[in-house]
Structures are given as structure tokens and as C-alpha cells.
Amino acid sequence: MSLFDKFVGNLFKRGEMTIILADGTVKRFGGPDPAIRPVTIRFMDKGVPAFIAPNPHLRAAEAYMDGRLVLEQGDIRDLIDLVRANGKWEEGRVTLRGTFGNLIRDRLRARIQSVNWAAKSKNNVAHHYDLNDRLYDLFLDADRQYSCAYFVDPDKSLDEAQADKKAHIAAKLRLTPGQRVLDIGCGWGGMALYLNRAADVDVLGITLSEEQLKVARQRAEAAGVSDRVKFELIDYRALTGQFDRIVSVGMFEHVGVPQYEAFFMKCRELLQLDGVMLLHTIGRLGGPGKTDAFTLKYIFPGGYNPALSEIVAASEKARLMATDVEMLRLHYGMTLDHWYDRTMAAKDAIVALYDERFFRMWTFYLAGARAAFYHGNLCNYQIQYSRDRRTLPITRDYMVEAERALPR
Fold it and tell me: What is the pLDDT of residues 187-237, one digit of tens each?
């Protein structure tokens, strides 16, 4: 029995999986499950099984991207959902383990890439965020919120859920007019512009993406608030001054574990004594781990989603108090379903921007991330910090009251 046969036979216990080999041989695995869609794949050449088996996380993606693995029933979301449903994090069953040599190489690659010094950080950001502007318009909401939405109702639209996310975060910042707010990793400026509009505060947004900077400044100018909402191309480590509030949404995943303590020490330095900070980041359930090889190679070089223990341990060194911690368990999976559907609907436009291989890579990325939130070890954390224990009210009621009052 080949390594691939052993791997597949161990993997599929629930849901129907059919594999058609290059010579026409049909192999069936698993069994019917009403919660999992049946999937049929075809290998276009005889070398695909041996190619995938040593490193399935990376090699299955590359086989799909290169057209060597083709879906004949279902789509890539269905395939990855079927795979991940057979190895749910809660059940503790590991199913996608490659050969020992590849595991060691992947772990070493992840460790090396996590050292994000300033120049490297800018290159890593450009790899993902300086893609063609039109791509993000095609699958994000109108405000270009490229982070987990907040679904107070699963039937909410993506735009409504992203608006609710901004209000949810603003409520935790406890804003008052005239405050000075720092937005670390400001994206295309949507959060900074919302905070100014909703709470009459001044905001400085910082980014390492030249494309995002350009768009953010244009948006502030168009809104007539460029005197109060400013954007700069600068690494957080080079920033000076102090702020009443700090918000960081979807940026901490790019900091890198070796820089965690320095990040929080810098945030303490930038935060007024009576200040409040809100960190919104993808995280992992359980303890520390590593970023998968596909994500590091093709999507987020240098990226890492931290365990809660890693975040809190690093912030403790800076004497920042975690005054509130919230875990969003399913919200990002729901967000990614919207992004995936919009990407599929925009296939022709995305292929015209890039090519078929890029489209397959992008859909694999979105489908894989979605499955990691529904079945794997990913979640989203919102952690509120203060420097002084008396800065915030002693109950959480103020958050609920503020969130209801904030505009959408």
C-alpha cells in the first residue's frame, strides 16, 4: 500500500470522497453524512498521489493550483470542508500529517519567517496587501473591511456585519470627543474614518502598505476630514508621541512571536496612563503552533496566528492589563463564506486581472481559512487593555449601552 493510500484511508471516515486516478481507477472512501457534501476529484497524471502524500497541506494546494487535481463533484470549499470535518480540533484527531522530514522543514521555515524586522515586515505586507486594488473591491464589503465581521444575526449581510464589527470595537474603546486615537495597521482607512464619524475623535492610521495608504488618504480627503483623520506609511516601532486610545485590527497576525514583547512595550509607551487599547486578531485555540506551509509560501509570508497564552504572556511583560477578553468562534467562518461566494461570482474579473492559477490559489486560501474556523483551531480574539485599573467602569454594561447608541 502506498503512502498516499495509507494517508487517504486514515483520513476519510465521514462524508463521501471519490478519487479518480489518472488511469481511470475509481476509489471511494468514507460514508454518507447529511452535514457534509460528497466530493469527487480526478488526478490528471499518475504522479499526483506521490506528490501530495509527503506534505498534504502544501502539495494538495499546489496540485489544485496547477490543474493536476480537478474537482468533478463539488468545489474546493466542499473538498476542504470534507477534509477538515474529518479532523475537528475538538476531537483531537490529527489527519493531515506529512512525512517527518517535511514537518521539520515546515516548522523551521515558520520559525525563520516569524522574525519580522522592519524592512522584512514591509515586504511581507506588500506581498499580500499591495495586490491589484480591484481584487479587494470584488470580494470585500463596500468599506473594505479585511478582517472578521461581527454577526449579531447570521442572516445579516456582509456590509451590515462589518458595520456592526466597527461599532462593537468602538464601544470597547470608550471614546469621547476630541480624543487622539492611533490605528495600528489601518488597512484602507475604514475603521479610522468610522471612529472619527461616530465619536468625533482625531485618528492617526499607520500602515506598511503603499496601496492601502493611497486609498486611505483619498477617502479621508473625499470625506472632508483629512485634517482630523491622517494616515502615514510608518512601522509602529518608529512611531513617537502618545494617544488616548489605540486600536489594532487584523495587524497582530503579522507581528511575529519574537516581536510580541516589543510590540506591547511600544503600545504601552504610546498609550496615555488613562488610555485604552483594543486588539482584534485571529488566534488559535489551545497552545502555540505554527503557520501552515501553504499560507507562508503563497498568502502571508511571516504570518502567525497566536494562542491566547502567547498574547497575554507578552502583554503582561509590558504591564498592560487585559481588562476584557472576548473570543469570536464562528464569526470569521461566516465572514469567509461571504468572501468565498463573492470571489466565485467574480471569477471572470479575477482571472482577467491575474490568471486561472491565481484564482485557484485565492479560492483555496479562502476555503482553507473558512474550514479552519469551522473545524480547525482558529478563532478571533478581541482583547481590551488599560494601563491603570481604574480607567474603565468595573462592569461591562457600558459596552452594551455604547454599542446600541453608535451609528452604523
Answer: 999 999 999 999 999 999 999 999 999 999 999 999 999 999 999 999 999
> For residue 6, what is the enclosing H or E element?
helix 3-11
Instruction: Please classify residue 96 by burial: count the beta carbons closer than 10 Å to its beta carbon, then call 0-12 exposed, 13-18 middle and 19+ buried.
Output: middle
Confidence of residue 117 (pLDDT cuts 50, 70, 90): low
Q: How far apart are CA 64 and CA 51, in angstroms?
A: 12
Q: What's the pLDDT at 13?
A: 86
Q: For the chain, report the end-to-end CA distance as a whole number of angstroms.
A: 58
Q: What are 53's three cell numbers?
A: 502524500
Q: What are phi and psi of 66, to 5 degrees?
A: -85, 0
What does the angle CA 264 – CA 245 – CA 185 come to, to the nearest 5 degrees? 60
The CA distance from 110 to 112, in Å, is 6
94, 121: one domain: no
- The verdict on residue 104 lying in a domain is no
181 has which bridge partners? 203, 245
Q: Which residues pair with 247 in a beta bridge?
A: 183, 278
**Residue 32 is assigned to a structural domain of this protein:** yes
Instruction: Identify whether residues 133 and 80 lie together within a single domain.
Output: no
User: Region 234-247: what's the mean pLDDT?
Assistant: 97
- Surface-to-core class of residue 206, CB atoms within 10 Å of its CB (0-12 exposed, 13-18 middle, 19+ buried): buried
Asked whether residue 159 falls in the same domain as residue 85, the answer is no
Per the listing, cell 497552545 goes with 287
8 A C-beta contact, residue 21 and residue 46: yes
Per-residue pLDDT tens over the stretch 14-41: 999 999 999 999 999 999 999 999 999 9
b vs e for 180-196, b when ≥16 Cβ sit within 10 Å of the residue's Cβ? ebbbbbbbbbbbbbbbb
C-alpha cell belonging to residue 44 = 490528471
Q: Which of 332, 328, 327 is nearest to 371 (CA)?
A: 332
In a domain, 108, yes or no: no
> pLDDT value at position 8?
77
* Domain closes at, from 70, 98, 126: 98
